[in-house]
């Protein structure tokens, strides 16, 4: 019985490391690309229904990712953390990468403008 418990704990630790990889790598990359393509839509001239709906879905998926997979996941994993710590985590993993993606899109448009 002891070996089964040890194996379960090792599996849980492995999944926790994968969760940290998801939170530290996948979520910021997703938010960065989301911010980039959302601002790219608003700055671009291609405002079709299809592109607009894809942008709306991207906005909603960024909101859901930030709330469900960052805020609520950390709230569940660390119930003793105060709300301010959770909000700072959302800023670190969601808002700052999203803003960086928007900044990258803006810089790309500025470079394109000056290259004309």
Folded structure, characterized:
With 116 residues, the protein is an all-alpha fold. The chain contains three helices and no strands. The chain has helices at 2-43, 49-77, 83-115. The longest helix is centred in the N-terminal third of the chain and has 42 residues, at 2-43. The protein is elongated and about 55 Å long. The mean pLDDT is 85.
Please summarize what this structure is:
The protein has 116 residues and is mainly alpha-helical. Helices cover 90% and strands 0% of the residues.
* Number of strand elements: 0
Give the assembly state of these chains: single chain
**How much strand content do the residues show?**
under 5%
Count, helices:
3
Taking all residues together, what is the mean pLDDT? 85
Largest sheet: none
The structure class reads mainly alpha
- Percentage of residues assigned to helices: over 70%
The first-to-last residue Cα distance is 71 Å
Shape call: elongated
Q: What are the main properties of this structure?
A:
116 residues, mainly alpha, 3 helices, 0% strand
Please render the helix and strand layout as text.
Elements: H1 2-43, H2 49-77, H3 83-115
């Amino acid at each position: 019985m002891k070996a089964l418990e040890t194996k379960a704990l090792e599996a849980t630790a492995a999944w926790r490391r994968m969760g940290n990889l998801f939170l530290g790598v996948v979520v910021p990359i997703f938010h960065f690309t989301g911010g980039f393509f959302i601002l790219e839509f608003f700055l671009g001239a291609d405002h079709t229904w299809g592109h607009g709906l894809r942008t709306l879905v991207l906005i909603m998926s960024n909101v859901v990712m930030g709330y469900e997979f960052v805020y609520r996941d950390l709230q569940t994993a660390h119930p003793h953390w105060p709300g301010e710590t959770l909000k700072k985590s959302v800023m670190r993993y969601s808002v700052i990468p999203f803003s960086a993606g928007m900044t990258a899109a803006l810089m790309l448009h500025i470079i394109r403008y000056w290259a004309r």
